Amino acid sequence: MNWEPVTFPSLSHVLESLEGREWSCEHLVTRLLQKKKTHTLEPDQIWMTQEGGEIAGLLFWGKSGLLLPYFPFLNRGEEEKKEYFTSLRNHLLENHLPIHSIVGIRSYVQALSEILQLEGGLQVEYYLMTREKEEPLPLIPEVPGFRTRPASLKDIEKILPLQILYEKEEVLLQPEYVDPGKTRKELESTLKEQIVLMGEYRGVPVAKVGTNARGIRYDQIGGVFTDLPYRGRHFARYLMIELLKTLKHQKKSACLFVKNKNAAALHLYEALQFKYREPFRIHYF
């Protein structure tokens, strides 16, 4: 059960192997697609193990300390799993790389934490959900005074306040340390590379939604946010349906992960025919 570095010539084979379960590792798929586009794997490290020509395990280790595990071998017998774990542990001990967070299916994240013998940190639990492009789209609710449109770089000053509020509420572990400069820089990249829709109520930007990873058959939705004074008016539902319409036109299904205690968001996604697939976890260190 040897683990070996993924090389650029093997990248197409790796992506083909992931396509059937792309929804379970969209962060990984989108990064591999970016590597293929730029024709280099540097400066990150990616390892794989194969069995019968099929990918049995993958691990992306980003230079910033982001780890993205994909461990289908966890479905094997205990002895097989032990062999995979032993060879991966031995391989990782030879590399002294930073660890900031592990993101993925909960069982994958838990297994990698145990392999690396990591303790402490903060674990945030989510549900991973998917919606297939074949599902019929619900009707857009009537919301007088509300309109949506695609956002571009020229809209950054309008969206930035919403993005900062979103990060404080949903992303940052210490909201008081939000860095507007960093948020602006990341938002610029998002507006260039992703689909972003903004919602305006009587001309005032009050809500947004978009993709945060674009894959082969799926796009991952993220950044769904409505400013607090405007919640309860179906703005998020309106935006989500518009985004799903755009993805359907591009022949893409949708996936997302949502905090398992966010009742309002779960209710919205259930109403939009998203299906529960797997428990999902981010483990911060």
Characterise the protein shown here.
This protein is α+β, with helices and mostly antiparallel strands and about 280 residues long. It folds into two domains: about 120 residues, 3-Layer(aba) Sandwich (Aminopeptidase); about 150 residues, Aminopeptidase (3-Layer(aba) Sandwich). About 35% of the residues lie in helices and about 30% in strands. Strands 1-2-3-4-5-12-6-11-10-9-8-7 form a twelve-stranded mixed sheet, with helices on both faces. β4, α3 and β5 form a beta-alpha-beta unit.
Which CATH first-tier class of the largest domain would you pick? Alpha Beta
> Segments where pLDDT lies below 50 for 5+ residues?
none
So, the CATH homologous superfamily of the largest domain? Gcn5-related N-acetyltransferase (GNAT)
Range of strand content: 25-35%
Tell me the series of helices and strands, N- to C-terminal. Answer: EHHEEEHEHEEHHEEEHEHE
**Integer-rounded radius of gyration:** 20 Å
Q: What spatial form do the alpha-carbon principal axes imply?
A: globular
Helix content: 25-40%
Oligomer: single chain
Q: What's the pLDDT, averaged over the residues?
A: 95
The CATH level-2 architecture of the largest domain is identified as: 3-Layer(aba) Sandwich
* Secondary structure tally: strands: 12
Number of helices, counting only DSSP H or I runs of 4 residues or more? 8
N- and C-termini, Cα separation: 28 Å
Structural class, judged by helices and strands?
alpha+beta
User: What does the main sheet amount to?
Assistant: 12 strands, mixed
Briefly note the CATH topology name of the largest domain. Aminopeptidase
The number of distinct structural domains comes to 2
Order of strands across the main sheet = 1-2-3-4-5-12-6-11-10-9-8-7
